[in-house]
Amino acid sequence: MAENNEEVTIIRMHDLRPAPGANKDRIRVGRGEGSKGKTSGRGTKGTKARYSVRPGFEGGQLPLYMRLPKLRGFKSPFKKQFQVVNLARLAELYPQGGEVTVEDLVAKGAVRKGFPVKVLGDGEVAAAFTLKGVKVSASAKSKIEAAGGSISEE
Fold it and tell me: What's a BP term from Gene Ontology annotated to this protein (predicted)?
């Protein structure tokens, strides 16, 4: 077991102590002059001695919460954001007319993927369009139907 006559020491629970300076006693403020009493390490007078500064106080400067504008109005988190395409753009993309779907418009770069699409009536239509899965304004609908096209909102 022990070679060269060395003594083996076994540490037991009752021998364990915290490292020197690791455990400090709590400062018992306001318990008389002999134990951190009177000013309690805050010095004399002044705001820091009184500790009457509320959170957010900036020394008399106009505070941040008053500098910022008030929240006004309401924004619905469920608002539908439509991608807009005008008839003039449709006439550019589809000169011969034909079937127009959201996937086709995304493939041609007219709209972004993942949003509903609405066709507005700015521009003139010569060819007949068949719109599928797209919302249409009243003016665009009348122009498309006048040109011989049709609309199916699926």
Answer: translation
- d(CA 136, CA 109) in angstroms, rounded, equals 19
Residue 139 and residue 96 in one domain:
yes
CA distance 40 to 25: 15
- Domain limits at 106? 83-152
- Does the pTM of the predicted model rise above 0.85? no
Query: Amino acid letter at 24?
Result: K
Tokens 């000169």 locate to: 95
In 3D space, the residue among 118, 123, 126 whose CA is nearest the CA of residue 85 turns out to be 118
Q: Where do the DSSP E strands lie in 13-154?
A: 83-86, 98-100, 117-120, 129-132, 135-136, 150-152
Kindly state whether residue 105 falls inside one of the protein's structural domains. Answer: yes
69 CB-near residues (< 8 Å, 6+ apart): none
Please write the tens of the pLDDT for every residue from 88-100: 999 999 999 899 9
Residue 77 to residues 2, 23, 83, 96, Cα–Cα distance (Å): 76, 53, 17, 40
**Residue whose pair of structure tokens reads 């034909």 in the numeric block:** 98
